[in-house]
Design a protein that fits this description.
mainly alpha; 16 helices
């Protein structure tokens, strides 16, 4: 590990008292809020749309696969774009692509469709735009953080993310009750609002990766794959990211919520919206606390312990037929996930040279996106074999097994005490 502290943005226009977050930076948290609100609201009610049309949980899993494939295929390209171009503008262009995908869904669903295939095609389009958006949005809080405010910037950005997680499903549920096509028009409006807020965010002065003049295709591909090489080489980054991949691949059940709400809890669109929001409510409560008082000690054990608690909450969700118990279980696993996101969202950028953050975080997004979207596919397939309850309990137990394995395999991760110990590799 390098003995040097990774350099911060240090822009003159953001100079001020150490730890102070200037007003224009808060627009980034707003853009993150709208981005997550449209994503969680849209995917929740796309799930309900597909489940109402097919009646089979397997088709819910295919939604996750359709969103994952473009993120996986485009990770090297999206990471290189994030490191070579102004990240604020890449974020805005990604939201623009989501506007087009959401409008396509609005017009298709409004036509009273009989086939789910075009829905999957539009989800692939949405996932393509999101692959570029996520590669930059996770790097920007660390890029723009004033001296002494890195942990607060990460916590506030994740709080905006979790705020969207709460508001999106509830607002989209109310819209779905009015008209099944209306949530997708609302999603396009959220993306447009995010673009407007990004125009307020100041430019970062992070060093841009550049290719030598006349560099050929081999050099372009090599630079694009640098992020993957760095993740493989840095044990702390590899352990933190892969923990999320395998734990949420097994324990992620969000795409099964429409089936859980209908078949096990007996609630409709509004009840489903509140269930989906419960994860965000638990997470936002934790993140707001961390934005005021971010913890600094035993961060490695906290990461592993929070993932274990996520697994316990998932098991309880799978066993219950009580709406109240299910809601509380989702609150708990949401809060646990927020601690995991906070720790990982601080460790990974600190362990990465700033000029490579876009490429490394693009790889991270494939891991995170893979854990959520492929986890949704896994849960759909498992539900077809074991039933909805069996799939959820199996996933929670698998998450606990992953935590036990990572505790032994990645001692570098569990031994981290202070964030200040984390440095990029040279």
């Amino acid at each position: 590990m390098s003995s040097q502290e990774p350099s911060g943005p240090g822009s003159g226009e953001r100079a001020g008292p150490p730890g102070r977050i200037e007003p224009r930076l808060w627009a980034l948290f707003g853009a993150t809020f709208f981005s997550m609100a449209l994503t969680m609201g849209q995917i929740t009610f796309l799930g309900k749309q597909v489940f109402d049309m097919t009646g089979e949980p397997f088709f819910l899993g295919l939604l996750g696969l359709a969103e994952f494939v473009p993120a996986f295929l485009l990770a090297p390209v999206s990471g290189m774009v994030a490191d070579r171009f102004e990240r604020r503008l890449v974020f805005a262009w990604g939201l623009g692509g989501e506007v087009l995908a959401s409008l396509g869904l609005f017009f298709y669903v409004a036509s009273d469709p009989a086939s789910v295939l075009p829905i999957y095609g539009l989800v692939v389009t949405f996932g393509t735009a999101r692959a570029f958006l996520m590669a930059v949005s996770r790097a920007m809080p660390m890029d723009l953080a004033p001296e002494g405010a890195r942990e607060r910037m990460v916590a506030l950005n994740v709080a905006g993310w979790q705020g969207g997680f709460i508001v999106g499903p509830v607002a989209f549920g109310l819209a779905f009750d009015v008209d099944p096509a209306l949530p997708y028009l609302l999603a396009a409006g959220c993306a447009a609002a995010g673009i407007g807020l990004l125009m307020i965010v100041p430019r970062s002065d992070v060093r841009r990766a550049a290719l030598a003049p006349g560099a050929g295709a081999r050099a372009v591909i090599s630079q694009a794959l640098d992020g993957l090489r760095y993740v493989r080489r840095n044990r702390v980054v590899l352990g933190a990211i892969s923990l999320d991949l395998f734990a949420v691949f097994l324990g992620g059940v969000h795409l099964l919520l429409p089936a859980i709400a209908a078949d096990r809890l007996g609630v409709g669109a509004v009840g489903l919206g509140w269930l989906a929001s419960a994860v965000g409510i638990g997470a936002a409560a934790v993140m707001l606390t961390l934005s005021v008082r971010p913890f600094q000690r035993r961060v490695g054990p906290a990461l592993l312990g929070s993932v274990a608690l996520f697994g316990v909450g998932t098991i309880v969700l799978g066993l219950t037929r009580s709406y109240v118990v299910a809601f509380v279980a989702l609150l708990v696993l949401g809060g646990a996930d927020a601690v995991s996101i906070f720790v990982r969202g601080t460790i990974v950028p600190l362990a990465t040279p700033e000029e490579m953050r876009g490429r490394v975080l693009a790889v991270e997004y494939v891991f995170i996106g893979g854990s959520n979207e492929l986890g949704g596919f896994r849960s759909g397939v498992t539900a077809a074999l074991l039933g909805v309850a069996g799939a959820v309990v199996f996933g929670g137990a698998g998450t606990l097994a992953v935590v036990a394995a990572w505790w032994m395999v990645f001692p570098e991760l569990r031994r981290i005490d202070h964030f200040s110990e984390v440095r990029p590799d040279t």
